[in-house]
Amino acid sequence: MAGGQSRTPCLPACVHVVDDDTQVRTALARLLAAHGYEVQPHATAADFLAAHDARQPGCILLDLALPDLDGLALQERLAAQGSALPIVFLTGQADVQACANAFRSGAVDFLTKPVDEDSLVAAIDKALAREAALRVRHEDQERMRVQLASLTPRERQVLAFVARGKLNKQIAGELGTTEKTVKVHRARGLQKMGVRAVAHLVRNLERSGLGHALAAAGDP
After folding, report:
1. Whether residues 133 and 162 fall in one domain
2. Local mean pLDDT, 10-residue blocks, the chain (220 residues)
3. Residue after which a domain boundary falls, among 141, 161, 177
4. Which site among 38, 84, 115, 194 is 20 to 30 Å from 200 CA-CA?
5. Is residue 146 part of a domain?
6. Residue 31 structural domain
7. Three-class secondary structure of residue 38 per DSSP
8. DSSP state string for 196-219
9. Rounded-to-integer distance, Cα 120 and Cα 118, Å
10. Is 49 helix (H, G, I), strand (E, B) or coil?
11. Is the domain of 107 the same as that of 40?
């Protein structure tokens, strides 16, 4: 990874089990712990919101029917807060409309009680993998925003043209300068972006979703 930065989170991934049934909550927590997951049980949505550290990676195993905020309401609140924590729903009754609403809002899975152990583990693994991918993307975006901010206006212009496949000679003509000057700005810009080749720059911009931030600099 460019810049040698580590993506290892400072906190371990955690599965938050939110269920108001003490026996079910305890059984799920023990089962998941036996599979090697770090688990935090919560009796209500309010308990979860009070205890959750947004910096901690993980996912939520969420009961649909809760005494305060129900599962769908908690999902909605987390979305409004900008949380990307993936949710696996767990319910005692199959509810087609609730299931559809949950998936429409980004749920990873919708399981019914009593839950099959293999299905539960598979859903949790999928949720944690999704969260890890989202976290990496977010870290990439933050790193690239810092790198883009470090560019001078001319370096941004040159890299924008470079990313479009323009040659140094063409860029010099567009900017009314010399090829030598373009080469200097190009080299400095690539260094600040933590890459050696234009292909790597383009790939990183596309992966982070920030290609537009650089492309705008080269607009006439």
Report:
1. no
2. 43 91 96 96 95 90 92 93 92 83 89 93 96 87 89 93 92 94 95 91 82 63
3. 141
4. 84
5. no
6. 2-141
7. strand
8. SSHHHHHHHHHHHT-HHHHHGGG-
9. 5
10. helix
11. yes
